[in-house]
Design a protein that fits this description.
The chain is an alpha/beta fold. It has one domain: TIM Barrel. It has 12 helices and 9 strands. The protein has an 8-stranded parallel beta barrel with strand order 1-2-4-5-6-7-8-9, surrounded by 6 helices. Strand 5, helix 8 and strand 6 form a beta-alpha-beta unit. Helix 3 runs parallel beside helix 6 and helix 11 crosses helix 12. The longest helix is centred in the N-terminal third of the chain and has 27 residues. The termini are far apart. The structure holds SN-glycerol-3-phosphate and calcium ion (CA). SN-glycerol-3-phosphate binds next to strand 2. The site of calcium ion has 3 residues, from strand 2.
Length: 285
């Protein structure tokens, strides 16, 4: 009898501990809104540490975290069976062996099921050392990045509800940033998860009309194309009360100039080099 009670207690404590673990982890996880509001420029690794390891793969994400990136950006699309998979292009050809494996060209990721996508090699195109690297799912990519940084999730294809559900299931809705060029998608996210930190991506000229559209999305960050970013456009974004991030900036001198013009975040394929340049410019002041 006593043994039964003791086993029950041990089991109860074990269940309690198991249930508590995610809550304790959540309590310690940095909040995305704090990171976004951090004073000083954020260095954001574009598609992971993508000059060091194949873009949008786990080795690239781990390397970016080790390089000290404040956020690590990735892109995702839904597979044919609705699973968010991390990948940039519409077609699988450039960074996988899809054509070699299945024949044909311009094979669209969204036409393949997860089980098919898992057969692909997404590392060999970058270097022999990365042969056998798989296309990661969004959930496992987030796990790799949140182990030391914050995920900047860029949606390329897929509905808002699936992404929000994934983040809620992982108890990470407050700990990541979601961005998109599709501002309707952002509005959908904002409707179902008002607490989610959102970034509106834009390209070409910054206009008052475009910024009026952004204002309807719930975004608090605007990520604009470097070519069209000037001190004046950064000021326009700040005047609306938003943070101004710039993509994709690989020239350290340009990154320094943007930071001096007030940019709050630099999205770069060279996070370590850009951080070094920005920090040494700040130290020289
Ligand atoms: O983070 C913004 C940037 O990634 C947008 O361009 O084409 O690299 O997804 P793209
Ligand atoms: Ca992207």
């Amino acid at each position: 009898m006593l043994r039964t009670i003791a086993s029950g207690l041990i089991l109860g404590v074990a269940i309690l501990a198991a249930n508590e673990r995610p809550l304790l982890a959540d309590a310690k996880a940095p909040l995305a809104r704090d990171r976004v509001n951090h004073h000083g420029p954020l260095i954001i690794a574009h598609r992971g540490d993508s000059k060091v390891a194949p873009e949008n793969t786990l080795p690239a994400f781990i390397s970016a975290v080790q390089a000290g990136a404040d956020l690590v950006e990735l892109d995702y699309l839904h597979s044919a069976d609705g699973v968010p998979v991390v990948f940039h292009d519409k077609h699988l050809d450039r960074t996988t062996n899809a054509s070699k494996l299945w024949g044909g060209e311009k094979i669209e990721l969204t036409t393949k099921k997860l089980a098919e996508l898992e057969q692909l090699d997404a590392g060999l195109w970058f270097g022999e050392k990365f042969k056998g690297t798989k296309l990661p799912r969004l959930d496992e990519s987030i796990d790799a990045i949140q182990n030391g940084s914050i995920t900047l999730i860029e949606r390329k294809h897929g509905d808002a509800a699936t992404c929000v559900k994934l983040l809620r299931d992982k108890k990470l809705i407050d700990n990541v940033v979601v961005q998109a060029f599709d501002w309707d998608y952002l509005s959908d996210c904002h409707k179902i998860a008002p607490e989610l930190v959102l970034g509106a991506l834009g390209h070409e000229e910054v206009t008052a009309d475009k910024l009026d559209q952004v204002a309807k999305t719930g975004a608090t960050v605007v990520g604009w194309e470097d070519k069209y970013t000037t001190p004046e456009t950064i000021r326009q974004i700040h005047d609306r009360g938003w943070k101004a991030w710039v993509w994709t900036v690989d020239d350290p001198a340009r990154a320094v100039a943007l930071v001096q013009a007030g940019a709050d975040g630099i999205i770069t394929n060279r996070p370590a080099d850009v951080r070094r340049a920005v920090e040494s410019a700040q130290a020289a002041k």
